[in-house]
Specification:
mainly alpha; two-stranded antiparallel sheet; about 750 residues; 4 strands
Length: about 750
Amino acid sequence: MGQQEILLVLILAFGILGLVTAWLLARWVLKRDTGTDKMRLISDAIKEGAEAFMARQFKTIIYLAVGFAVVLFGGYLLRGGQAFDPVANNALSMAFWTTLSFLLGALCSLIAGYVGMWISIRANIRTAAGTLRSVNDGLQVALRAGAVSGLMVVAMSLIGVGGLYAAAHYFGGVAVADLAKTPLLIVGYGFGASFVALFAQLGGGIYTKAADVGADLVGKVEAGIPEDDPRNPAVIADLVGDNVGDCAGRGADLFESTAAENIGAMILGAAMATLAIKSNINFAWGVVGVMLFPLVARSFGIVASIIGVLIVKVRGDEDPMKSLNRGFYVSTVLAIIGLAIASRWLLYSTTAPDAWWHFLLAGIVGIITALLYVFITQYYTEFRYRPVMSIAEASKTGPATNIIAGIAVGMESTALPVIVIGVAILAAYALGQSSGLPDAGLFGTAVATMGMLSTAGYVLAMDTFGPIADNAGGIIEMSGQPAEVREKSDRLDSVGNTTKALTKGYAVGSAALAAFLLFSAYLDELKNYGLNLGGVIGGTQTVTANGMTQAVGVKTQYIVNIADPKLFVGALLGGMLVFLFSSLAIRAVGKAASAVIADVRAQFKEDAGILAGTSKPNYGRTVDLVTKSALREMVLPGLLAVGMPVVVGVLFRVVFNAGGETVAAMLMVGTIVGVLMALFLNNGGGAWDNAKKYIEMGFAGGKGSDTHKAAVVGDTVGDPFKDTAGPSLHVLIKLLATITLVLAPLFINIPK
């Protein structure tokens, strides 16, 4: 068995370990108590609504994905000619492998999203029943159910990329001498994952916020009834929305992040290793070791996440958030150890013996960046800190000042994250450049991205914990449990709100780093296809080994000149796409919410016994209405995001012979604007939400006061920001990069 086979077996074995652990955790969760008959009745209604939505949504997404696969295959065949010679032996081979990887990525993303939703709608009742006994029982059920989704996402990404790489290498027609080009055959996997994640996040986000906004405005503001009150016809739809938006949508989102990052890091690692070997710098396990290093490091991350989840336990009367943080810190430390082992094993070179620990430090930079993003998000979205308190204070003078303060907080919240991500990119790049390997700066940033995503399994477990705890709280309240039980469920719900906000910050931070990595991979891919936007500059670097000194060329700099009118227009279009996409996503929530509001008002008017508590509302009618509205409204923004890079790339290639570089400019500015807009929407919306919760705790008159009503308006404005447009932008940022990676041959005219 050769080195490559050993590494692939190891990678697939760790992926299978993740799947087996997820299955065992699912069995453990499903064996828990399911509470009273009344609790099960509510849980069954949530399960029925969620499964009905997902069945319809997946049917729509499958039609769109198959349609795009046909277009992708046909486009590659029509392009044909010498475009694919640098990578595959012919256009048909390239079209086949790219389309196959696209469809597999889409399928795996669908499965990842569905598993997240499937386990959450079965865990909510078990979490509620566990909370009847203790906070620890409820927390462990919710977290381990979340870990089923988290481990499935990371393991399937690992198996998918590793398995596709093996298939493409052995059957894809890439010459042994061109082994480093194998990842270019499977870039479609990341794009397929992005394609599904975008529609899953959009559809789920529109659904959850349309139901939430409708339930809040008619229930809390107009009727004056509490949240999760069974008299509200939209309350089941609201609880369904937590699952299809936060669980299914975020599962697909982070699956896409890990898949795209794996492939992008493989492309950059292969490019760096190939250049190093040409400069007589060899690695312990050759080019294949460097190329598969991202997958090996991800394998150790699975083990770290498993251990982190299993040790979480609430000790006595401690804050549940403290126990979750303890698990996260353990996962982080173990991930660093795993990264150190992988770096020393696969990145060690006798010619550059210090290189491996430079890359280890770059990975640690990524991990620190993740921690800082979590703390910054916490500062801007928790009621204990100045930003949220300032919005609550502004609510005293009405909705207008509440909204002004919320927008200001959202805008302010972009500053610190941008500084952190800027320092992280520069530090990781410098560590790569100083490693002693030629042109290693970009690979340093790739390892930083790997570090940030190294605990993705645990982070997704915490994220899915949030909606499960929220649903459990709703079941407990609607089933009329005693006050002491509601108090315990409120503690878990409060922690869940925090974890959801923190993981949104983590997601946008990882999206920013991954987008830079994928942008670099796109430029490197253009070089493989014959379009070199720059060259080797910066003179030479001296490397000493075994008493001999040699000079190697360093620092390949790619030039995207936005002073060129064509590229400047492409850059403008990239920035515009982010604003237009956000507008369509937010407007979609408004349209769907209007339909919910009309339905809830109509039910109250048709049957006065609903508010009196003598008759039940028609929950199914509202759930069905929101489902149809959300699926209808998700199509236009989704097609805009997918179609615009294709149109710009092909049009500028045909008209100006500048498709590749114009798309590069579009991708660069779209990424920058997308990161800023996502931060603004996520943090602004989260701050509005917690300002309302702060007032509900008794500040400035508490529930029912004019201050509270003003805060509910602000929270309603922030809902589509933080749960629809913001999370969808995480996916858009990476989708722009993955679609350009896949379609690069269609954007450039290869010189003969």
